Amino acid sequence: MCGRYVLKAPEDISERFQLKQFTLHLDPVYNAAPTMELPVVVENETGDREAKLMQWGLVPRWSKPGTKSVAPINARAETLIEKPMFRSLIARKRCIVPASGFYEWKQQQGRKQPYFVSLPDDPTFALAGLYDEFAGNDGHPIASYTIVTTTPNDLMATLHNRMPVILPRADEEEWLSRNVIDPHQVERLLVPYPAGAMTAWPVSPAVNNTRNDNPTLIEPIGDATA
Q1: Distance (Å, rounded) from C-alpha 184 to C-alpha 179?
Q2: What is each CA distance from 202 to 35, 59, 78, in whole angstroms?
Q3: What are the tens digits of pLDDT across the range 64-82?
Q4: For residues 38-60, average pLDDT
Q5: Does pLDDT of 180 surpass 90?
Q6: What is the DSSP letter of 152?
Q7: Residue-range domains of the chain with CATH
Q8: Which are the catalytic amino acids?
Q9: Pick from 152, 185, 181: nearest CA to 166
């Protein structure tokens, strides 16, 4: 799964993802957590890419105001087409979640050790996401997203049985394109990223507390696993 991630240089989003304009004023985030408003990249109706702030945790359209409802932060790639909550979104509402890395926890010696996972050759990369935007019962807009996960590669399998879908640069255009509405066409993109292009190292358990948000969270406290 993917329950926390990092965006070290949000000012790089515009150039990295070729946005026509970028009006968001963002600070680096070293402990992005569910329910936070974070930037995602979408393709708008004119075919241009833009960055929007959305809540991490997909809010269903059928949610009733004042009730605690499911808001999944992850969506399994294998069942996107089957589940009504995601079926229409994979056809028409796909997004990129910019990230510099993410955290995963490994069970070892009776406790969960956090690891920071990144791509050494890509300081800002694309996680595959699904999003939705609609007006709530009170008329206020609701915008939210979820991160798609898949089976792990060899590196991630040492940490967890799931991993977020990382899109190769060559696949980003197809994933975002509003002209692609066949879910089966993009379903083939939802595969594990090559393990050899990733690295992971243990970090401080301070990341467990979402109130902690600073660069020291990603500093290694042991040797990298790749």
Answers
A1: 14
A2: 25, 32, 29
A3: 665 566 799 999 999 999 9
A4: 96
A5: yes
A6: -
A7: 5-218 (3.90.1680.10)
A8: 2, 104
A9: 152
- CA pair distance 180, 102, nearest whole angstrom: 28
Among the listed residues 61, 60, 59, 15, the one whose alpha carbon sits nearest the alpha carbon of residue 41: 15
Specify the pLDDT at position 70.
74
* Nearest Cα to Cα of residue 20 among 40, 59, 47: 47
Res. 87: pLDDT tops 80? yes
Residue 144 makes CB contacts below 8 A (sequence gap 6+) with 54, 55, 56, 57, 58, 59, 71, 131, 132
Residue type, 92: R
pLDDT tens-digit map of 88-131:
999 999 999 999 999 999 988 889 999 999 999 999 999 999 99
Q: Is 54 helix (H, G, I), strand (E, B) or coil?
A: strand
Which SS3 state, helix, strand or coil, does residue 108 take? strand
- Beta bridge mates, 11: none
DSSP SS3 for 13: helix
- What is the pairing mode between strands 141-150 and 74-76? parallel
Q: Which tokens is 102 given?
A: 């993410």
pLDDT at 64: 64
